Amino acid sequence: xxxxxxxxxxxxxxxxxxxxxxxxxxxxxxxxxxxxxxxxxxxxxxxxxxxxxxxxxxxxxxxxxxxxxxxxxxxxxxxxxxxxxxxxxxxxxxxxxxxxxxxxxxxxxxxxxxxxxxxxxx
Length: 122
Hints:
Layout: E1 2-4, H1 7-16, E2 21-25, E3 33-38, E4 41-47, E5 60-64, H2 68-76, E6 88-89, E7 94-100, E8 106-112, H3 113-121
Parallel strand pairs: 1-4, 5-8
Antiparallel strand pairs: 2-3, 3-4, 6-7, 7-8
């Protein structure tokens, strides 16, 4: 579950920019909770009071993506990256990129290259 100050805006962002579809919302007029799906993944967003925002923990989610390069290219055109977002190979054997959503929840998409290498050699 990801915290958000505006569920309707979060729905618009995840659907319009990240290619998710709305699975459900608790209200069509002023949603406080919603589920979004893409490629077998479902995430939930929930409203949190702006007055309490500084005390709300914002997570960093990691998604395994077999075609991470293709997803990076898709998102590159959707104005979601921050200035340091890059597709990179890590010391721990992944190829990944990361950015923040509208509410500074971290999203990392990666491919595990060490698992692929082990499968090829095993």
